[in-house]
Write a structure and sequence with these properties.
172 residues, alpha+beta, Immunoglobulin-like
Length: 172
């Protein structure tokens, strides 16, 4: 498990525990109390719960926002790969890629929307990006191991969508 996944998992577990504690506290605060309703007390409780929930959500946001991968840079001298999706094929302009060095994929489509998905040799999806016509999508990824990586289209693009398969090599 990566450090990012661990932080996000812990943050969400904390959020679940806080949610359970809040749910139990709200349930217990509404039990009993036969007779006249104390609207002033309930109003204060509502305000307090609102503040507690907002603070918990803000804490969850702050715990995870710095681990969002968007906007990653490949550095000063990246390995660049230009990818063009054309109906039923990927045109991948790649010379030689090395493992351990960030790769900047610049993907575009000539015709319809495509989903540029890269899989490792165990058929595990490493990353994907939606590619739309006449726009360039940038995604940065660092391959940890040498090998053959498969590219599939993850957006239905027509009758031969299932044939839109390509691959590239990453060397050590």
């Amino acid at each position: 498990m990566t450090q990012t996944a661990a932080v996000i998992t812990v943050a969400y577990l904390i959020a679940v525990v806080i949610g359970c504690v809040l749910s139990i506290a709200v349930w217990r605060s509404t039990r009993g109390g036969e007779g006249r309703l104390d609207t002033e007390l309930y109003s204060k409780r509502e305000g307090t719960w609102l503040v507690v929930v907002l603070l918990a959500l803000f804490a969850l946001l702050m715990a995870t926002i710095f681990y969002v991968p968007y906007g990653e840079s490949a550095g000063a001298n990246p390995q660049r790969v230009r990818v063009t999706g054309v109906q039923y094929a990927w045109a991948i302009d790649v010379t030689e890629l090395r493992a351990g060095i960030p790769v900047e994929f610049l993907a575009t489509a000539e015709d319809v929307s495509h989903g540029f998905g890269v899989y490792n040799e165990d058929d595990v999806l490493l990353f994907q990006v939606q590619v739309i016509p006449k726009e360039t999508q940038k995604v940065v990824y660092t391959f940890k191991k040498p090998g053959t990586y498969k590219v599939l289209c993850l957006e239905f693009c027509g009758a031969k969508h299932h044939e839109m398969v390509s691959s590239f090599e990453v060397r050590g």
